[in-house]
Amino acid sequence: DKMSTQTTAQKFLEFVNASSSPFHAVEEATKRLVSSGFQRLSETQPWELVRSGKYFLTRNRTTLLAFTVGGSFVAGNGAKVIGAHTDSPVLRVKPNSLVTSSGFLQVGVEPYGGGLWHTWFDRDLSVAGSVLVHEGDGKYAARLVRVARPILRIPSLAIHLDSTVREAFKFNTQTHLLPILATTARNELNQTESTKEGTQHHPALLRVLAEELKCDIADIRDFDLSLYDTQPSAIGGLHNEFVFSPRLDNLLSSFCALEALLAESGQDSLKDEQSVRAIALFDHEEVGSGSERGAASNLLDSLLHRVTAFFSSSQEKTPADLAEVAIRRSFAVSADMAHGVHPNYSDKHEQNHRPQIHKGIVIKRNANQRYATSAATGLVIREIARLNSVPVQEFVIRNDAGCGSTIGPIVSVKGIRTVDIGAPQLSMHSIREMCGVDDVDHYFKLMVGFFRDFEKVDSKISDFE
Q1: What separation in angstroms does the CA of 447 have from each of 84, 226, 296, 417?
Q2: Which residues have a Cβ under 8 Å from the Cβ of 370 and sit 6 or more positions away?
Q3: H/E element holding 377?
C-alpha cells in the first residue's frame, strides 16, 4: 500500500543521509544490527555460535557481514546471501592535499571509481570518513568524522571565459577538479597555525577536523576522507514518487538487504530455518573488488567454512568436505542498481529491454558474464518475486554498448549460484541520482521473500549439476 511504500522510502532517506561515507554506512548498519540483538564477532578469534543466533562482523569498518544461523541448521547446509556494496564514486582527499593557487587554498583530490565528475561542479561539498588519532601511550584510534557544513566547492568557469562549453563541457580531472577551501587572504586573518615546510594538508582543514573530533591537530596522524554533497536526499516529483539522493548506487541495495535481514531475524522466523541467512556489504566494488574487504576476498568462503566447522562435530563427514557441500547448496543475490530507461535517451537501451521506474525489480543478464544470472538462477528469483507479488523486469545491454559489471560474477566464481538484480534508477554515478519510491518497497519485499521462500522455490527446480 501507499503508506508502507512511503515509509520504506523515508527510512532509506534517514539511512543514506547518515551514510556520507562507507565508514558511516557500516556504522549505521551496525547500530541497527546491535539494537536488534545481533552479536559482534571477531575474525581474529574462534567463533562461538548457536542455532537461531544473530551475528555480524566488519572489515576496515567499510565492509560488513551479518548473518543468522537457522534454528534447524546442520553442517553442510548452505547460505542465502544478499551481496551489495557500500562504496560509490567519490573524490577522495590525497595523502598530500595542500594546494595553493591564485589566492585560494585548495584541496588535492583523487577520483575514486567511474563518476560523472561534471556533476560535482557547483555543489556544496564537505568531507567525511575515518581519522587515525593518537590517544596517548602510543595508542591510535580510528574515529569517524563528518563535517556537516559545506566547506568546499568546485566552481565552474563562466561561459564568458570559455565559449567552447556551448558545444561540450570538457575538463581535466587533475587541474580542474580541485575544490576551493578558502581564500589565502581570509585564511591568514583567521589562521592560528603556520604552514610549515613539508606540511601535507592545509592547517585550516586539519583544524576543522580537530574541532569535530575534539582533539589536537598534532594528534591527527592520517585519514581516509571523501568529499560528499551536503544537500540531503529527498522525496520529490509531482506525486512524491521519486527519491532524489546521492549514493543510491549502491546504498539503496545495502539498506534493503539490511532491513530484509532484520525483518526476518525474529525467533519465529528462525526456528524452522535450515540455512544461514546473510548479507555481505562489500567495499571497493566501484574499483574492481580486489582487496581484503572486496567481493573477491575470502569473506564468504570464510563464513561458510567457519559456520560449517563449528556445527560439524557430530557429523560423519569432515568439516572441509561439508563446507564444499555448503557452497554448492548456497545461493547469492547480487543486488546492485539497474539502468532505468531515460526518456531523453531511450535509444541507449536495447529495444526489448527498457526497464521503467515503478515497474519492478530488474533481472540483469549478459551473455559475456558481466552479470552472473543464468536461466536457472533467473527463474529462482522470478518465482520468489511472483510469490511475493513483486513485479520484475529484464535488462540486457545493447550489442554496441559496453556493459558494466557487479559483484555477481566475482561471487559466482567461488562456486555459489548467483543472480544479478537491481532497482531501476536514472543518473547512475552522478552526485545526485534518482529512482522510484515504489521500487524501494519492491526491492525490500523481494529480499524478504528471498530469505523466506528460497528453499520452497529451489526444491521445485531440477538439479543443474
Answers
A1: 12, 30, 23, 16
A2: 397, 403, 404, 405, 406, 409
A3: helix 375-387
**Rounded to an integer, what distance in angstroms lies between the CA atom of residue 291 and that of residue 414?**
15
Residue 465 has pLDDT above 80, yes or no: no
Written as one string, the DSSP assignment of 128-170 is EEEEEEE-STT-EEEEEEE--S--BB-PPPPGGG-GGGGT---
Tell me the mean pLDDT in the region 270-295: 97
Average pLDDT in the 396-409 region?
95
**Minimal CA–CA distance to 257: which of 4, 38, 65, 18?**
65
Single-letter code of the amino acid located at 380: V
Residues sharing a CB contact under 8 Å with residue 120, sequence separation 6 or more, in sequence order: 91, 154, 177, 227, 431
At residue 380, the 3 state secondary structure works out as: helix
Other C-beta atoms lying within 10 Å of the C-beta of residue 169: 12
Bond preceding residue 187 cis, omega within 30 of 0: no
Per-residue pLDDT for 431 more than 60?
A: yes
Question: Is residue 250 exposed (0-12), middle (13-18) or buried (19+ Cβ within 10 Å)?
Answer: buried
**Strand ranges for 41-87 from DSSP E:** 54-59, 63-69, 79-85
Distance in angstroms (rounded) separating the CA atoms of residues 446 and 82: 11
Using CA atoms, how far apart are residues 438 and 425, in angstroms rounded to an integer?
12
pTM of the predicted model as reported, rounded to 2 decimal places:
0.96
Determine what percent of the chain is predicted with pLDDT higher than 70: 96
Task: Report the sign of the C-alpha dihedral through residues 183, 189, 190, 196, in that order.
Answer: positive
Q: Sheet containing 392-395: give its strands across.
A: 39-40, 54-59, 63-69, 276-282, 79-85, 331-335, 417-422, 361-364, 392-395
Give me the residues paired with residue 152 across strands: 125
Residue pLDDT, tens place only, 188-197: 888 766 666 5
Quickly count: other Cβ atoms within 10 Å of residue 158's Cβ.
8
Place of cell 568529499: 227
d(CA 350, CA 401): 10
